Amino acid sequence: GAVVSQHPSRVICKSGTSVKIECRSLDFQATTMFWYRQFPKQSLMLMATSNEGSKATYEQGVEKDKFLINHASLTLSTLTVTSAHPEDSSFYICSARDRMREPPDTQYFGPGTRLTVL
Amino acid sequence: AQKITQTQPGMFVQEKEAVTLDCTYDTSDPSYGLFWYKQPSSGEMIFLIYQGSYDQQNATEGRYSLNFQKARKSANLVISASQLGDSAMYFCAMSPLPNSGYSTLTFGKGTMLLVSP
Prior knowledge:
The complex is a heterodimer of chains A (118) and B (117).
Chain A: E1 4-7, E2 10-13, E3 19-25, E4 32-38, E5 44-51, E6 57-58, E7 67-73, E8 76-81, E9 90-97, E10 107-109, E11 113-117
Parallel strand pairs in A: 2-11
Antiparallel strand pairs in A: 1-3, 3-8, 4-5, 4-9, 5-6, 7-8, 9-10, 9-11
Chain B: E1 3-5, E2 10-14, E3 19-21, E4 24-26, E5 32-39, E6 46-52, E7 60-61, E8 64-69, E9 74-79, E10 88-96, E11 106-107, E12 111-116
Parallel strand pairs in B: 2-12
Antiparallel strand pairs in B: 1-4, 3-9, 5-6, 5-10, 7-8, 8-9, 10-11, 10-12
């Protein structure tokens, strides 16, 4: 399958700091990338959809000023958690869609980033 | 709106046996795609298999097959000859087709599969 990388894999930060997470599609161009949040033993919760060259579309209840998304190129999207607080601690996982690959519209996921805010 | 239901929070199977993970769905979209993903303890979501709603045959991918029953709106995953490495969380998901740039995946709550020796 397609390869998506995510960096860092794990980050611990102090409350009030900002954290940037990078998501890269390594072997394909991704016009659309997605950011999810996952709490322990729960399913993935979509936070936002990011299309290259346009503003991200945020899901209801997700603060766009808190979770800044930039899709600067066809292979890179970044999620910045601004002024992080302990309640932002979670597993963040990105995915990218390769529209040229079969089966159609399959999302390929990165390995995830575990954020811990102290 | 789309909805995925996975009624089995956990499943146990012995090595080398087959196991079926249930998934039912609800949608008003005339065409759609169904996906299964595996999430081991490392956290990465691994794409396993895909079924299009208009595909006549059930999808197969190695030891994975999808038992697609459109009238019943079910898309069960069958894993044959289970291996210890199959122990993981399994998610069923769907999206409408054709997929616009803003179409998203709807996930079920997942089923934890444990394979014992």
